[in-house]
């Protein structure tokens, strides 16, 4: 398998996972685990691309040096057969440019740039931010619109203007507004990737081309099957798959997505490790509910022995929010 040539309609393929960053039990980076997880996601879950150092990769609590190390490990593992997209966003334009340049130097294939958070810039500030990063870095960019986290939505008119930049090619759309997404697909050639797994099929009905997912760590192949069924015109089949996957699409976000994604991966014996504070690992009750959600979606999550061990660990660490 080799990485496909970029398609302007879907420059990063159909299925992209926002990859967790594996840590060792002491909270340090697990670079070997990152490489193994990346290979699993591409080879076993059929991902066309991976986002590294996004929010699900715990970018707020990793250093710039750690981000570079993880990115290089993933590129070495799968860069020849998948699109590796580096999360480089921050709420400081200068720092975002620095991260984008570092990602380009490391060999990343594209960048993911989130709306600046907390300082809530006006739309003119967003235009300046995204255009400046695109000007200062030679990589194609996916803009990440997630107002529920950042406090600021990227208006449709702003996206129309951003689409004029040759390197701004896609949007990770977590706005949850199908009508506004419809206007973006009508008025621009931006490739829309759903940023909410449960909205992938609805957004495809108005022109989206795929998903940047989290449950796709374990449900990638079936999510891709849903996308491809819709593209073939098999709408009833796509809806059937959507309904089957819906418990997982919802279940992974009963708390912060990375927390449950890491728990699910550990239940499957895959690299993940703890989360870093201020996040905290799952409680036994959350693990039990996650297993129920995944079972309803058709996946038995971990054997009883492994589940019991993780639940026992959760009892001692959940309220501390730190690894042992």
Characterize the structure shown.
This protein is of the alpha/beta class and 324 residues long. It has a single domain, classed as Aldolase class I (TIM Barrel, Alpha-Beta Barrel), CATH 3.20.20.70. 47% of the residues lie in helices and 11% in strands. The chain has 13 helices and eight strands. It has helices at 31-43, 64-78, 93-106, 123-136, 147-150, 156-162, 178-187, 200-204, 216-231, 235-251, 257-267, 284-296, 304-317; strands spanning 15-18, 49-52, 83-87, 110-114, 141-145, 168-173, 191-194, 210-213. It has an eight-stranded parallel barrel, surrounded by five helices. α1 links the parallel β1 (15-18) and β2 (49-52). α10 runs antiparallel to α12. The chain is globular, with a radius of gyration of 19 Å. Residues 319-324 have low confidence and may be disordered.
Report the oligomer: single chain
- Return Rg in Å: 19 Å
Instruction: State the major sheet.
Output: 8 strands, parallel, barrel
Share in helix: 40-55%
Q: Please state the average pLDDT score.
A: 94
CATH topology: TIM Barrel
What is the CATH architecture descriptor? Alpha-Beta Barrel
Poorly predicted runs are 319-324
Number of strands: 8
- CATH H-level superfamily: Aldolase class I
In DSSP terms (H or I, runs of 4 or more residues), the helix count works out at: 13
How much of the sequence is in beta strands?
5-15%
State the name of the first-level CATH class.
Alpha Beta
The total tally of domains equals: 1
Summarize the structure.
The chain is 47% helix and 11% strand. By secondary structure, the chain is α/β, with parallel strands linked by helices. The protein has a single domain, classed as Alpha-Beta Barrel (TIM Barrel), CATH 3.20.20.70.
